[in-house]
Specification:
Distance between the termini: 37 Å
CATH class of the largest domain: Alpha Beta
Largest sheet: 6 strands, antiparallel
CATH superfamily of the largest domain: ATP-grasp fold, B domain
Number of domains: 3
Shape: globular
Helix content: 25-40%
Structural class: alpha/beta
CATH topology of the largest domain: D-amino Acid Aminotransferase, Chain A, domain 1
Radius of gyration: 21 Å
Length: 337
Amino acid sequence: MIWLLEGQSSQRDIILGARDALPAGVKIFASHRQSRPEITELADVSFIEPGDNQARIEWLIQTAQDNNIKVLLAGREGSLIESARPRFEAAGLTLVTGGLSLEALNRVDDKSLFTAESERAGLDCVPAITVSNAQQLTAAYGSLSVLGEVCIKPVVGIYGEGFWRFKQDADPFRCFAKTAVREVNFDTYLQAYSAAEDRGPMLVMPYMAGSECSVDIVCEAGHPVAFAGRRKAGLYQRFEREGAAVELALKAVQHFGCDGIVNVQTRDDANGKPHLLEINPRYSGGIGYCRAAGVNLPGIFAARRLGFEEPETVWRADVRVKAVTVGLPVPVLSVPA
């Protein structure tokens, strides 16, 4: 039995991949803290998770024991669940969170720590300066802007939230009119940043003009066992499993001891050399796209963790994918009067 805990919407793709790889008699459990039947009803058994974090830990352990579940894969809140690892292990449960300790998860979740550790380990990464006030931001921008374009992002975050590229010729109002472009005049950004009362630390970095590669990896205690890289090409994404970006991603998960289904982001400089951006210790939103290239990463993960033969990979390099929105009928839940 395997239990897929609350994750991003791609939790649906994890369930589908696991179902295709596991014997029919093996039950798949799935849960979410919200009512998300379009995701969880694909599993054999689904639950609504408690909202309270401490109650959630108790409930996860007890429910897993009651249903003879052996493996639990965390999606969201991996650090919270990882902090209770000794309790899961004492209950005879295999917990998979992206790392094997809270310290390991913090080293990749905190992009400031991740950058410093990558540099220490000799892994090519995008250099960054951590700032926490307007004076530091101004100084960091001044030192980096003489070398080229500069960008900024939060120390902790997902989905590119808080990322901005500084463009001095950008119209000051453009960042409000075209938010998806993620370009802003530095003086406009600085004015807003200076006025904020509650702001977390930010990373100021040189902006690399090359393409980005997203590498999805199934790994076990730092050992990568299956992977696929995705690179955007206009409206589409193409796949790769060789090359400098993939090799760098594999070295990174080995060094940081990743464990589970993780995602590594790299960015090429102007000369085409990849640099690490970050490791997300959880499966990506595009994890399901890799099926088009012939590799079922969720299925490989689930089969190996439960001791079954993993699905065969027949690599297809001649495909590209594009996400489309598909409407799914979802039953309306009755609400008591």
